[in-house]
Amino acid sequence: MKTLLFFAATLTMCAFSGTAAFAQKNEKGVAEAVERLRKAMIDPTEAELSALVSDKLTYGHSGGKIEDKAEFIKALVSNDSDFKTIDLTEQKIEIIDNTALVRHVLTAVTANKGVPATAHIGILLVWVYQKGAWKMVARQAVKV
Question: Distance (Å, rounded) from C-alpha 67 to C-alpha 82?
Fold first, then answer.
């Protein structure tokens, strides 16, 4: 009887741990990663940005400029790319295996290199679930 109870308890724990892992790999986990990125772009730190993006990041701006991970982080931390506010609307998330496609409209107030401006652009983000976390591997902005 004790063996049966132990076996049942073990199965229950495995089910809950599997559910927790799935919760991180589903749309909610992706949405949380996107929100962490939004906040990190407004108040950037190298550590937080590095934790959110893949070493293979390709970050495309609406004007055609492409940055890798180091360039993306440097631009934000140095305030060359300075977001004062970022609002995301019309967000849609699609998950395919360990990859998430996220589309939304980004509206922002910026001060890039100290020059005040606004942005209203469409965004496609590609996230990959690696080593227990969502990492942004690609971003492409388009003019709306």
Answer: 15
